[in-house]
Amino acid sequence: MKEKKYxxxxxxxxxxxxxxxxxxMTIHFDVGRExxxxxxxxxxxxxxxxxxxxQKDAMMEEPAEGDxxxxxTISRVKQLLRLPGKTVRVLVEGVERGEIVSFExxxxxxxxxxxxxxxxxxxxxxxxxxxxxxxIEAFESYAALAGRISPDTVFSIITTxxxxxxxxxxxGSMNLKTSQRQELLEEKDSLKRLxxxxxxxxxxxxxxxxxxxxSSKVKGxxxxxxxxxxxxxxxxxIKEELGESDIDGxxxxxxxxxxxxxxxxxxEVKEKIEKELSRLVRMxxxxxxxxxxxxxxxxxxxxxxxxxxxxxxxxAEARSILERDHYGLLKxxxxxxxxxxxxxxxxxxxxxxxxxxGPPGVGKxxxxxxxxxxxxxxxxxxxxxxxxxxAEIRGHRRTYVGSMPGRITKAISQAGSMNPLVLxxxxxxxxxxxxxxxxxxxxxVLDAEQNYSxxxxxxxxxxxxxxxxxxxxxxxxxxxxxxxLDRMEVIYVSGYTGEEKQNxxxxxxxxxxMKKHGLKKSQLKISDSTLIDIINSYTRESGVRNLExxxxxxxxxxxxxxxxxxxxxxxxxxxxxxDYFGPRKFNYEMALEKDEIGIARGLAWTSVGGDTLSxxxxxxxxxxxxxxxxxxxxVMKESAKAAYGYIRSRADILGIDENFYKELDIHVHVPEGAxxxxxxxxxxxxxxxxxxxLTNHPVDKEVxxxxxxxxxxRVLPIGGLKEKLTAARRAGMKRVIIPELNRSDLxxxxxxVIESMEIIPVKSMDQVLDIAIRNQE
Length: 777
Prior knowledge:
By secondary structure, the chain is an alpha/beta fold. Helices cover 43% and strands 19% of the residues. Helix 10 packs antiparallel against helix 12 and helix 17 packs across helix 19 (545-565). The longest helix is centred in the N-terminal third of the chain and has 52 residues, at 190-241. The protein is extended, with a radius of gyration of 39 Å.
């Protein structure tokens, strides 16, 4: 037996998904992965040769070495065509088999060492010739049954003399499983390959014959249905000759016509229904098309085209309902009262399209239900979180199997009136993919100038949405597309202060949970000071969801204790609070015990409310380095550099050695280093702490501050003032420095917060230093 000879070369490699390329086979496919496109480009720059093999798992996006079959085909790239969307269509011709010996590189594409066997021509044996003829005969039968292989391809295969080429051409042209194709590709001996291929061809022939038999039987059933239809048509004509109405004999169709006469439909809708009913009369009731048509007619008939609810236009009653159900949310309540008053004065006043933006748990969704009650509109909630298909909004076209109307049409149908209040919850959580962008479909829905003729793809008739009151909710406007945001009136709902949470708990949460758990008012008592302690020590949130959970938890514990121990009532105070709520979960940083050098107290806004922020500065001999630690964001780092620049420019006025930036290292640290911090509002706090450390003068322990600093020492406005002042009050601060440009925001702050501290608006850094820095005697 002759020893086999091999040669090895390096080729770029592409792993294919669900495709196996054989030698002598010409095939085209699309390439979209960046690594695969890079491999193609490398092949085109070299000798146009590339190694093609198959992935073991076609669903894998980024296969590694172990996820690829070793045996593949060295192929020549014949043609490249770049398609839109970073996709390349490639035409290749298989040259010869090869095996991966090793991987030279995986980035930016696979480069592999491929070993190929040097083929030595030999004489054909009688067995090989018999196999060749039998394979050609079987393939001709397969091609005749399959009907998808072109005559030219069949002719080129049956005239092939080379058994090696013949087996590859037959395998490449048949519709085989990936495992079967790979097994044939890995078999290098042409005689063995034909021996394996022949039973596969016979098996495929049997399957095709069964498919043909099944198709014949189905056709017979369809012919029977056509026969029934023909007889029904004849029966219809006989009834007409006898003077009998065809409709009278069909209860379902009679019901449709009765509804059409009973209700008032828009002209275009009525024409559409009549046209569809005339088609339905001529259809066989058992046909699939008749079922689709009936469903469509039922949707058109059952929509409340002529139904509306009578609005309540009493501002006083509406205010009473809103105040009954919700504490705070003044901006939202005032906007609804304004709408009711305007609607009362002008009947053609369009409903507002509002977007309530705020943190979770502040009552955005629940107040909308109260608004619906206040204006006497049917309420429908539609969650848009995770919606990524445009058809969810506009509906599917009737050409698709299982098509249905979109969510807007379903909401109108569910409400049973044409003027409901529709809540689009979590509108900021919508996304898009290859099926379309639902946010773009919402543009028409939420535009009062366009939604008078909204067309659902399924219904294909105009629907007037001007009477619908749309309200949306979101946690942030950052993810809402600008054109969509522009169509809505945004009302920002801020988090609750401690006093607001206390009132909400007393008026709503505690009575609700006590009623739910069967407790009477006398059986569970929670003092005001204890309630404040629960809010500050066991929850940290903008809303009240966790607070309600804590109250529900203590109600359960109280019920258990009342039942097991037989006592009459339970009183929770600061002394026994941990017995019911467990150890305190959160601790707020309080005011320092004494004035400190190099420590200033700033104020920060967080997603769960406000908080105080201690900024510490140490001065050390060195070479003028400015070290910033505490997991600070880029904006906060830039604020520190701006403060540093301001101090250098005014060193002589501030009484600081003008060479301090050369001889001293400054280390600025913001505690709680694991918590990310960012934003410009700590600018004046950073400057104050650094100046205190450099001048050796302490900072007043009772002063907190917030404001952005410029290089010239101006103090610029900040956001989240309500939450920051609440945090300062909670920490026991006596004075708070804020930017002068934020003075107007004080009108929206609760009176008890403002009266509990001295709030000092400032314009410049000089004013900040006069207030915060204590001059030592």
